[in-house]
Amino acid sequence: MRKVLFCLMAMMGVLTVSAQSVYDFTVKDDTGKDVSLAEYKGKVLLIVNTATRCGFTPQYKELEVLYEKYAKDGFEILDFPCNQFGEQAPGSIQEIHSFCTANFDIQFPQFDKIEVNGANEHPLYTFLKAQKGFGGFDTSNQQGKFMDEMMRKQDADYDKKSDIKWNFTKFLISRDGRVLKRYEPTEKISDIEADLLME
User: Fold this and answer.
1) Which residues lie below 8 Å from residue 47, measured CB to CB, with a gap of 6+?
2) Which DSSP letter does residue 161 get?
3) Is the pLDDT of residue 181 over 90?
């Protein structure tokens, strides 16, 4: 059994290393059904790990505005709730979905809860982090300064690692599945919109 598990883990590692685009990955939707990200070929994607009890949770509203504005042009937001940061995404995916629709009327797809760092991280996030590492918080604003100080207390070298730092980290994906840019949670949605217009 241990041998089989090791082989499976090795195969997952090979898949992540050999992956050329996000289309090589399969995820589970909010009903537990497998979804190939190849279904989103030809669309601009924003992949985001979210939480419902975070200081950044109001970004759901801004993300929904962005989605409604550009969905007709082939833009999709793929939402992956994650409970790894301060346990701020408690509850089942159904409870999370109910909260988000009731409070922010989100229309973009939500997927099953995942882990984005560590031994159980989803291979999609292993790939995303390998493509775009941490670029730093903007410490010229209060939020960025707070996040930097909080992280540095936990790990003085946190900024040298590519792991996801907090909820609402975002990755912009091109129409051909390439990872274009990574946005930390303190970055403005208007900056993402500017990049969307260029794409």
Assistant:
1) 22, 78, 80, 124, 128, 170, 171, 173
2) S
3) yes
Reading the block at residue 152, the tokens are: 């540095």
pTM value?
Answer: 0.89
Would you state the torsion angle of the CA atoms of residues 158, 117, 44, 137, taken in this order, to the nearest 10 degrees? -20
pLDDT in tens, 15-30: 444 568 999 999 999 9
Whether the predicted pLDDT of 4 surpasses 80? no
Q: Which residues are catalytic?
A: 54
Which among 62, 85, 111, 93 has a CA at the least distance from the CA of 163? 85
Q: CA 151, 154, 160: angle at the middle one, nearest 5?
A: 60
Q: Which residues pair with 111 in a beta bridge?
A: 29
Residue 79 in tokens: 């939402």
Whether pLDDT at 13 is above 50: no
Q: How far apart are CA 186 and CA 87, in angstroms?
A: 19
